[in-house]
Design goal:
Layout: E1 2-4, E2 22-25, H1 30-41, E3 46-50, H2 60-63, E4 71-73, E5 78-80, H3 82-92, H4 103-114, H5 116-128, H6 135-156, H7 168-178, H8 182-187, H9 199-208, H10 212-217, H11 221-232
Parallel strand pairs: 1-3, 2-3
Antiparallel strand pairs: 2-4, 4-5
Helix pairs in contact: 1-3, 1-7, 4-7, 5-6
């Protein structure tokens, strides 16, 4: 269960801690969403302290000197970087396990998670320089980054990368699948993906939408795009109004 604050800005006071686990977050950050997915998958109650990333509270630098989200306060330490946090949660709260029990299989899963960086990096480039490529060029590049995931899931022949239920790969990749339609908004037209380009991942996306952890933190592309506009726009942002 998630207990969350409004997005706190400059001049705010750090709120009192109400749960053993406190996540410094931003409602529309895909990296923070990774952690929230794992927390919900584990059935953990936590306090989400939302940060206004355009006007960060002065005290947040003492929590995380990079002033980025997410950051997890475990009570004993502060952990930053989404994958490090998610791995900590999986090691500390073992049920349900999000990696395969067999060491070699778990190693391969971690290698595939590293390739998510290709997807996230390309998404970031499109977000800031959407007009530097044609829609066809963006499609070609995105299909290249998605190919390892399409091939792996097709080879496994399972509903999710984690088998019958989502595992760590599923949750680490999902935030960008949720935001896929944002790419259309960025280039101002529907990207020309053919229906048979990544059919296994298209089916995976439909199945992920039925997962309870995904449903608990789902915002959808329209709200995520609005958050991008507010974050990079000139107006005073009110992220709680989205």
């Amino acid at each position: 269960m998630e207990i969350k604050t409004p997005h706190l800005s400059e001049g705010s006071q750090i709120p009192p801690k109400s749960e053993p686990l406190r996540l410094y977050s931003f409602e529309y950050c895909p990296y923070a969403q990774r952690v929230r997915l794992v927390l919900h998958a584990k059935g953990l109650t936590y306090q989400a302290v939302n940060i206004n990333l355009k006007k960060k509270p002065e005290w947040y630098a003492s929590i995380n000197p990079s002033e980025k989200v997410p950051a997890l306060d475990t009570g004993d330490k502060i952990i930053t970087e989404s994958l490090d946090i998610c791995n900590y949660l999986d090691e500390t709260y073992s049920t349900p396990a999000l990696y395969s029990a067999e060491p070699e299989a778990a190693r391969r899963e971690k290698e595939l998670i590293e390739k998510v960086g290709g997807v996230t990096g390309l998404f970031g480039k499109c977000m800031t320089n959407a007009k530097e490529k044609t829609p066809e060029e963006w499609v070609k590049e995105f299909l290249s980054t998605m190919e390892p995931f399409e091939n792996e899931l097709k080879l496994k022949g399972t509903t999710f990368f984690g088998g019958d239920k989502p595992g760590m790969i599923d949750y680490m990749l999902w935030p960008w699948a949720e935001r896929a339609k944002v790419l259309d908004y960025l280039v101002e037209q529907k990207l020309p993906f053919s229906e048979d380009s990544i059919p296994t991942l298209h089916e995976w996306k439909k199945n992920m939408l039925t997962d309870s952890a995904v449903q608990a933190v789902y915002n959808g592309p329209d709200k995520c795009f609005k958050a991008i506009q507010l974050k990079y726009g000139s107006e005073e942002p009110n992220f709680d109004s989205i």
